[in-house]
Automatic annotation (TrEMBL):
Residues 15-84 form the HTH gntR-type domain. Signal peptide: none annotated. GO terms for biological process: negative regulation of DNA-templated transcription. The lineage of its organism: Bacteria, Bacillati, Actinomycetota, Actinomycetes, Kitasatosporales. Keywords: DNA-binding, Transcription, Transcription regulation. This is GntR family transcriptional regulator. Gene3D superfamilies: Winged helix-like DNA-binding domain superfamily/Winged helix DNA-binding domain. SUPFAM superfamilies: Winged helix' DNA-binding domain. One of its GO terms (molecular function) is DNA binding. PROSITE patterns: HTH_GNTR (PS50949). It comes from the Bacteria. InterPro entries: Bact_HTH_transcr_reg, Tscrpt_reg_HTH_GntR, WH-like_DNA-bd_sf, WH_DNA-bd_sf.
Length: 253
């Protein structure tokens, strides 16, 4: 839940500061900054995020708790807004094309700290030869059919603002298993609104297709780019989209 622009709280006559913070936090919960069911950052981090004291944060959380919008247990507070819980399969899964290993299949993912492919470096605004976190994914049946491979490069912005990703740098030796299934949840929890664009192209002289996914945040800063290659003779890609329903207009309005 990172804020990248200054935040001021102009005085509002008759409205306590904690109520304004509760309103702003509720807005961030509703716009998906913190997914439904996800843990909220601690009071200290929330206080820094909003530029207020921890006591003000406590009062704001208590207000949301009384309204049934936030719950607290021994591990801290979490949102209780209705919606898909974190980890529920959706169209925006990491990496694009990822599948859970089932009997008779092999799914492997690793991370490395190395220079990305030249086209990835250009898309992410990285200087040639500059290393970054690279995620590699491979899925196949035991006989080699249904093969799909994905290579993801993360931007400097993603590593600077998403602490869960940054932690992988010291262990990114390219060999240890590293499934970053919650990478997009981590980004949203860091306060980033995700926008993605998928381009599908056919590879010449092969039965495979390439899916290139580019993800950027609400400030148009690149976060990651992934190239997925799928054996189109043995496999298929399925995209799911959810379109929010229109808010009903109250009768008599």
């Amino acid at each position: 839940m990172a804020r990248t622009t200054p935040h001021d709280h102009p005085p509002a006559e008759g409205e306590p500061l904690y109520r304004r913070i509760a309103t702003e936090l509720l807005g961030e919960l509703r716009d998906g900054t913190v997914p439904p069911g996800e843990r909220l950052p601690g009071e200290r981090r929330l206080a820094g995020h909003f530029g207020v004291s921890r006591e003000t944060v406590r009062q704001a959380l208590e207000l949301l708790r009384r309204d049934g919008l936030v719950a607290t247990d021994r591990r801290g507070s979490h949102t209780t807004l209705p919606g898909l819980p974190v980890g529920t399969p959706a169209s925006l899964t990491f990496p694009v094309g990822a599948r859970a290993a089932t009997p008779g299949t092999v799914a492997r993912a690793t991370v490395a700290w190395e220079p990305p492919p030249p086209d990835h470096a250009e898309a992410l605004g990285l200087a040639p030869g500059r290393p970054t976190l690279i995620h590699r994914y491979r899925y196949a049946t035991a006989d080699g059919h249904g093969l799909r491979t994905a290579v993801t490069s993360f931007s400097a912005v993603a590593l600077a603002e998403v602490e869960e990703l940054a932690r992988y740098r010291d262990r990114a030796d390219g060999t240890a298993a590293a499934h970053l299934r919650r990478a997009y949840d981590w980004m949203r929890r860091a306060g980033l609104t995700l926008h993605h664009r998928d381009a599908i192209t056919r590879l010449t002289s092969t039965p495979s297709v390439r899916v290139t996914r580019r993800v950027h945040d609400q400030y148009a800063r690149p976060l990651e780019i992934t190239d997925l290659v799928v054996d189109a003779q043995q496999d298929a890609l399925v995209y799911e989209f959810t379109v929010p329903g229109r808010t009903p207009t109250p009768s008599g309005a």
